[in-house]
Amino acid sequence: MSLPAIHTAEQYAEHKLDLPEGGRWTELVGGKIVTLQPPDDEHGNVIRNLMLAFSKFAHKTQQGYACFEIGLVTKRNPDTVRCPPACYFMEGAPFAELDNLIARTKPATVVEIASTNDRRRQIEECILEYQELAIPLLWVIDPQEKQVHVFQNNRSAKRYSQHQILYGSSVLDGFEYPVGDLFALPPWWNPKVEPRPPKT
Hints:
The chain has about 200 residues and is α+β, with helices and mostly antiparallel strands. Helices cover about 25% and strands about 25% of the residues.
């Protein structure tokens, strides 16, 4: 099927699954579809560790839930839709965004991973877009430097090294996780089989 060169966010959502590989690793930037490099193993380890950490946090607090690779409209006319590796939602009905390709509510936390070269090149632009969207908490995880850069509304950016603890601040109150553990191969992960994370 031939897709138009310029898309709105709504057109992108409508046609995304028709793209190669179901549109995975794509974003809409300035009305045009952009394909990102498939993420590397370090990127995957971060996501797998976050999946379990967010699951435990949600179970413990009974507040919110995580979504992975959901689209966020960051600009209009022309439209930009970013698909960050992870978001944590606190508003709305429980799990209301899980089946959506584009979020209808604003997440409390957005996680970007500066892993592949193209993701690193666009990270500053992404940060500005999330700040303009007034995302309460943004984590930019850098697997190369083993660091996490934290951006929070009306506060100076902070950088956490692999020997420090990452906290959820007042946004994800009670969340904490060793930065170094984000980059470790999860002990439950078998790269030959894609299992579900262990129950929490």
